[in-house]
Amino acid sequence: MKRWILLGLITTSLSGCFGDKNSDLKAWMQEQSEGLRGRVEPLPEVKPYEPFTYNAFDLPDPFKPSKMELAKKGSGGGIAPNTNRVKEILESYDLEKLRMVGTLQQGKIIQALVKAPDGNLYRVKLGSYMGQNFGMVTKVTETEISLKEIVEDSGGDWVERTTTLSLDDSEQKK
Fold it and tell me: Tell me, what's a Pfam family for it (predicted)?
């Protein structure tokens, strides 16, 4: 009897392995995939490589200050800033940020008092430099400072221009 029970158990457990329990799912998948056909689009046409020859070696490099180098060497002639001298303190500020606040006179020599953005006062005399455009003081009066600046024009050449720094209006009222 034990044999018959054991044989029945084995038969029952093996019948579960051979059954098709997902037959409805497989039938649905077969039904849905009937009209579908895989289609791969053709690859795009590959264009042949055309090499480019770079012929701009004779053109000036826009990132190389060649005009400045010519001015430093002195071979260009004309006007050029003196880049070998030691810069003065007031050359680190824009001229628009500097204010003339007064003058001092010792004998015949007049010196201007200039207030920098850092709040300090500086004495400026004939021949001093100020501003970021290589501005040299050419004249100091009781009401203004005249400067000769050397600036670069659109063509890369150095040109002189005259600028004045007038006595601050708020300082004149004091």
Answer: PilP
The pLDDT, as a whole number, for residue 168 is 79
Q: Is the whole-model pTM more than 0.85?
A: no
User: The tokens 């791969």 sit on which residue?
Assistant: 40
**132 with 92: CB under 8 angstroms?**
yes
Cα separation, 7 vs 51, in Å, equals 81
Provide the pLDDT confidence category of residue 97 given band limits of 50, 70 and 90: very high
Q: 90-166 domain in CATH 3.40.30.20? A: no
Question: What is the three-state SS of 2-57?
Answer: HHHHHHHHHHHHHHHHHCCCCHHHHHHHHHHCCCCCCCCCCCCCCCCCCCCCCCHH
The domain ranges of the chain are 90-166
* pLDDT tens digits, 101-125: 999 998 888 999 999 999 999 999 9
23-39: string of b/e by CB count within 10 Å (b at 16+)? eeeeeeeeeeeeeeeee
- Are 100 and 139 in contact, with CB atoms under 8 Å apart? no
> How far is Cα 75 from Cα 79, in angstroms, rounded to an integer?
11
Query: Strand pairing of 135-140 and 129-130?
Result: antiparallel
Residues 6+ apart with CB under 8 A from 38: none
